[in-house]
Fold:
Amino acid sequence: MITEGRLGARAVIVGAGIAGLAASAALAPFFETVELLDKDELPDAPCPRKGVPQELQVHILLKGGELALESLIPGTRAALLAAGATEVRLTEDVSIWERDAWQATRDLGYSQLMMSRSAFEHVLRRQVLQLANVVIRDRTPVERCPSAADLTVIATGRGDKLLSDVSAPETVLGIEVSYSSVRFAKPPSFRGERRFIACIPQPPDDRYGLVCPIENDEWLITLCSRFDDRVPDDLDGFRAYAAALPVPDIAERLREAVPLTPVRRYRIAQARWRHFERATGLPPRLLPIGDCISSFNPTFGQGMSVAAGHAVALRDVLANWSGSLDGVAAAYLPRAAEVSRQAWSLAAMVDLEYPRTVGERPPNFAKVVLGSEAMRQAAVLHPEVQLLRFEIGNLVKPDSAARSGPAARLVAREMTRTGGRARER
Structure:
């Protein structure tokens, strides 16, 4: 018997990573029982596990992702802070060298929480287990989609096999990104520093680096490259690669930092977006989420936040649902696609600036690049543009916000100037 207000007796989620955990919070108000199934043994402490191959790389929770998780499970932000997340104020605690200059330092009224991937997942898992009707079953591999559930969500990430028989159009970019990370104890001179640093040179220079302050007053430092360039996988080479970046800030921190892990290298050949909203052969009560739908260039840090946005879209659909669950997918998938679209457009436009990236460039690509550069330049001059740029990039506001309002007019003015300078060259 289904309790009044519930839509079904049992929902199943395959995959208990960030996407699966967010999905469980989205489903919990609407089903008698929500089961998360994962093939791994899930640890009782924040530590790496086999099912997350990029576990030791930097993972960034965008502000939009944080807000989405908080709306799904109130108290999540406080739980992350209690578990040791580093709160980074925007932009007082941020140094971003982008293309040819440092971004302006201003109080944007926001902060972000930074942790290791394993710590993020551990906190979120504890939050989810406080929901009385959610059960997590680890060491439970799933070879085929469960048939006895009222609704099934597939949250098994990149390379998912459970949805391989579904025919869905795809957008694919050949990005050939490789990156290496090391977890460090800070030297005495930097203890207590909560500065996030990013060095992002002008394309086609394909080197970049990130310093992410995490729990226990430690750093995760990631160095990245594209195509034939490779970040060394030994510590001396790692330090030398950082020293060759256009600004010295990352190398300075590496000089006396004490490594806590070996250099971990990872490579992503493609970014992939499967358009399930236009799929054929998708069972009506089977829903993909997270990286199953869209997997981006991971160095943009969008994955966890997009998964949380998908979960909010699912919750919002179910909150207004009545009747057969057979129609849920048709209502949810276009909303999930819109979450993916904004993140994809932000990342893909940068990826496509590198000439060797394989993928179709839109007919107005040059104009889009010009607009992006105009917004970057306007953000240096105008705090309101810098704030809007942060909010769009962090999935707090839709990218349509850049097309209207006072900040948009400032960007349009700068675009005219930027276009004029480009024509003069």
Residues 328-351 form the longest helix (24 residues).
